[in-house]
Amino acid sequence: QEHTFKLHHLLSEKAPAHTQMLAPWAEKVAANSGGKVKIDIYPAMSLGGKPPELIQQARDGVVDIIWTVNGYTPGLFPRTEVFELPTVYTNDTVATNLAMRDMFESDLKQEYNGVEVMFLHVHAGQGIHMVDKATRKPEDFAGLKMRIPTRTGAWIIEALGASPVGMPVPALPQALAKKVVDGAFIPWEIIPPLKIQEQTKYQIEGADKVRFGTTTFQVSMNADRWNSLPEDVQKAFRDASDEAWVAQVGDIWRASDEFGIGLAVKAGNEHITLTQEETDAMNTALTPVVDRWVDEVSAKGIDGAALVDAARAAIAKHQQ
Amino acid sequence: MDALLIGFAGLFVLIGLIAIRMPIALSMILVGGIGVTILNGPAIFFSQLKTLAYGQFSIYDLSVVPMFVLMGNIASKAGLSRDLFRAANAWLGWAPGGVAMSAIAACAGFGSVCGSSLATASTMGQVALPELRRLNYSGALSTGTLAAGGVLGILIPPSIVLVIYAVIVEANIVTMFMAAMIPGLIAVVLFLITILIYVMINPESGPAGERPDRAEFISATVNLIPVLTIFGLVIGGIYFGYFNPTPAAAIGVFLVWIYGMARGFVKIPELRDALLETARTTGMIYLILLGAEMLKIFMSRGGVPQAMAEWMANSGLTPMTIMIILLVALIVLGCLMDSLSMILLAIPFFWPVLVEINGGDYVDAANAGFGMTTEDLKIWFGILALIVVELGLITPPVGMNVFVISAMAKDVPMIETFKGVMPFFMAEIVRVILLIAFPALTLWLPAYLSGG
Amino acid sequence: MGPVARFIQGWALAGGVVLLLVVLMNAYSVIGSMFGAPFAGDFEMTQMGVAIAAFAFLPYCQISGSHVTADIFTSNASPVWIARFELLASIVAFAFACLLIWRMYAGMLNQKEYDYTTTILLVPHWWAFIPILMSLALWICASLITLRDAATRTLGR
Ligand code: NA
Ligand code: NA
To answer: Where is the TRAP C4-dicarboxylate transport system permease DctM subunit domain (chain B) (predicted)?
Structure first.
């Protein structure tokens, strides 16, 4: 092998993100390069530091490639954040991944200084997990305490009249069990590792799997490393991260989400799908979140309204 | 292969540096930093240093450490130790060996608000040692009891070493605290039995104390209410999930502080002393943490933990043999370093070995090497490791608890103190055997409490 | 105790006060959440406050000799040899503190340049680096003090 890369990420080597996404992608790159490239994956922050440091590690060349959650460093990727908003991201992982790819060169690339993005993706979206209350309408959330999923997720909770509570993900099962929080906004995919089905009765989502915001992720390489690579090697990376791949990533995350909710249902939980009317009422209540985001990014000189429209249009284009 | 060799060489250099009195944290920093530089050049190490220390020092789960340290330090000033000993004495003091038993009970009580062994030994030593000597308890029994009793500071939750363990292996701190409870109580019972047997064999070493009058009995018992309330709120709150460990520790500091102020025991000078003591302990712990992270980076890049895990898994030894080898290795390392450094240094190597021989992260209990899920193994091994690393505090050549108590009891030669802790050491070995033979002693309570 | 050492002790106490503030904030948040109004930023403020406090403790640990060492192999060494070992340890501490202040200064510029903030309250992380860099500067001073002490003792005072 002529080129060896260290890929660093935060989850365990048994996590679906590692086994089903990162490892197959690394193999794809290696195969495309005709064996010139080898990517060693270091899971669970084994090369040191805490998850929010990953992006800086890629920029500094401490590691070559990272997979990270954009939201760990709030404010760094304000434009990409548009895809995390409720009513912008609704239910389609594949279309959203493709939309991010479409808008990357024109709208997003500028905020990824010092790294070369391989691909961006989302998870299947924040579903609602409730301990003992089947919340179907925005009013049902009044006075409840809900765990914050992301920065804009906190706004969702406020928009619904509930109190946002910050806590690390591993503390969530305990907090749900003792009703320190009444519920949480997180994707179904978190159900199996945290055994959320044991602490909750209800998993709630909108009609047609509509969710309430999502989280964006990136796989990125140190920019200097990228620029130093010969064209054929760059092509091996590009080909491994093409449209078909990001669509496949969308399917992978959808599948692990389905697995999670299947587990909860099998454990006897009630999986509630809101009616179209109820879903619309929730989305109406969440419109202020989008407005708040537009206002906030405007202060940074970003045309948020245009980004929202462009993102919605790009997602819609791929949904057909 | 080359990288692996450099990694192992690094471990030898580390031991050499520690042996010539280089602070353990700095030894790790030096070996980690130079090691990464040799393997991958200086740029990586320099870049990583930009945020590594800030990242480590701001780990949320670790924030309970300075808080529990502070709580213990304020509690020492607030007179909680005196209240505990007085009450225990009212209940047990009249029996043969009873004052020593009271000291153990009071150590256990103090351990329930203090996360460290040394703090428990020194605080309870100040209170109980004069009383034991006044009643003509033998030097060996009185100092041995207190040195051993100090260990309860860490065996009864909250426990700083357990927090660090939980952070390294990504276990739930609350679960670890729950798991430590029954083993901690077993330690108390075994220590009490040890004293009973000791005074049966040597009646003159532990004469009976005075029987308290009714008024003293009631007043001493009533005095316990504040300690019990604070313990109930903090640990009860954590166990029953009403708060996370950090807010619980904060509430604990707050209550102990208010209580100390209300009694007039904690004024500005006492608070100042407690803060400076906390600064010394916290700074020491956090620097070791940074050193351990730097060492981990070097070792991961060299492939050492992976190689060790693979080698142990393919060694053909039974899982139980490997477990015992690892525990013995911890006892031996205990001659060289303190419990915290040991946990930070050894667990990142030992834990992957155990995961590997158990059959991976998500193995079924039925197919696992240890006959339990890896989550359960994490809890069980954590408690066993906690006990054996704490044994180092009471064994020669470096037994920190023994040193602390010896320094207080000027008239008792240190060798007497080491003789005095021997029976307790045997009791600890009995306990380790019990916990290995019956994992349920460790695993039942967390399962029960999180299920209910 | 010289004026520098006294300042270092005062700095550690200031770190202790930050820790007490974190304690009070957490206590307030628990009480607040009982009445339905938890303080959403408690998590990140705890992280930042404890980090600032922990750095503030490092110089005091250096002058008070709080960093644990293993004394088993050197317990019979002569005082001059012990002083030599301590001199070496002070040199390492000095070198590391210098390296760290240089690198964390670069880290601060990075944090500022890329606008790293906390999640909920959007507090810039580089703010925390200011007291931290001050702590590291004091750690350099502290290691010079212990270095001088050890050097004096190697000369058989
Ligand atoms: Na304790
Ligand atoms: Na020892």
So the answer is: 12-441
- Can you list the positions of beta strands (E) in chain A? 3-8, 37-42, 65-69, 115-122, 127-130, 145-147, 163-165, 183-186, 202-205, 216-222, 270-273
Subunits with 3+ C-beta pairs closer than 8 A to A: B, C
**Which residue among A76, A143, A166 sits closest to C40, beta carbon to beta carbon?**
A166
Subunits with 3+ Cβ pairs within 8 Å of C are A, B
Q: How far apart are CA B341 and CA B315, in angstroms?
A: 27
The predicted-structure confidence for B278-305, as pLDDT tens digits, reads as follows 999 999 999 999 999 999 999 999 988 8
pLDDT of residue B107: 95
Ligand at shortest distance from the CA of B392: 2
In this prediction, residues B419-438 reach a mean pLDDT of: 94
CB contacts of A73 in chain C (<8 Å) are 114, 116
Q: How far apart are CA A159 and CA A286, in angstroms?
A: 6
- Give residue C157's pLDDT: 55
Helix (H/G/I), strand (E/B), else coil: B50: coil
* Mean pLDDT over the full length of chain A: 94
Question: Tokens 């909250």 identify what position?
Answer: B158
CB contact under 8 A, B47 and A57: yes
Amino acid at the residue C1: M
Q: Which chains have 3+ CB pairs within 8 A of B?
A: A, C
Residues 135 to 154 of C: which have CB under 8 A from any B CB?
none
Residue of B nearest to C64 (CA): B280
In angstroms, the CA A291 to CA A219 distance is 29
CA A75 to centroid of ligand 1, rounded, Å = 41
Q: How many CA atoms lie within 13 A of B278 on its CB side?
A: 37
- 3 state SS of A133: coil
Q: What is the mean pLDDT of chain B?
A: 90
Out of C56, C66, C70, closest to residue B284 by CB: C66
Q: Taken in order C16, B292, B41, A114, is the CA torsion positive or negative?
A: negative
The pLDDT value given to residue B452: 44
pLDDT tens digit sequence for A123-163: 999 999 999 999 999 999 998 999 988 889 999 999 999 98
CB neighbours (10 Å) of residue B218?
A: 12
Specify whether the CB–CB gap between B29 and B290 falls below 8 A: yes
Q: To probe the interface with C, which of A163, A172, A293, A295 has the most C CB atoms within 10 Å?
A: A163
| String of DSSP letters for B185-234 | HHHHHHHHHHHHHHHHH-GGGS---PPPPHHHHHHHHHTTHHHHHHHIII
- Interface contact flag, C47 B63, Cβ < 8 Å: yes
Question: Under a CB-based contact definition with an 8 Å cutoff, are residues B120 and B111 in contact?
Answer: yes
Q: Extract the tokens encoding A176.
A: 């749900």
A46 contacts B450? CB cut-off 8 A: no
- A15 — pLDDT class (breaks 50, 70, 90): confident
Interface test with A, best of C34, C47, C116 (most A CBs within 10 A): C116
**Which has the closest alpha carbon to B278: B270, B341, C137?**
B270
How far is ligand 1, taken at its centre, from the CA of residue B111, in Å? 4
Alpha-carbon span C60 to C55, nearest angstrom? 10
Residue B36 parent element (H or E): helix B24-40
Report residue C36's pLDDT band, with 50, 70 and 90 as the boundaries: low
Among B47, B242, B300, beta carbon nearest to A62: B47
The yes-or-no verdict on residue A52 having pLDDT over 50 is yes
For B167, residues 6+ apart whose C-beta sits below 8 A from its C-beta are B59, B61, B62, B173
Q: How far apart are CA A140 and CA A133, in angstroms?
A: 8
Residues with CB under 5 A from ligand 2 (ion): B 392, 395, 398-399
| A145-147 vs A183-186, strand pairing mode | parallel
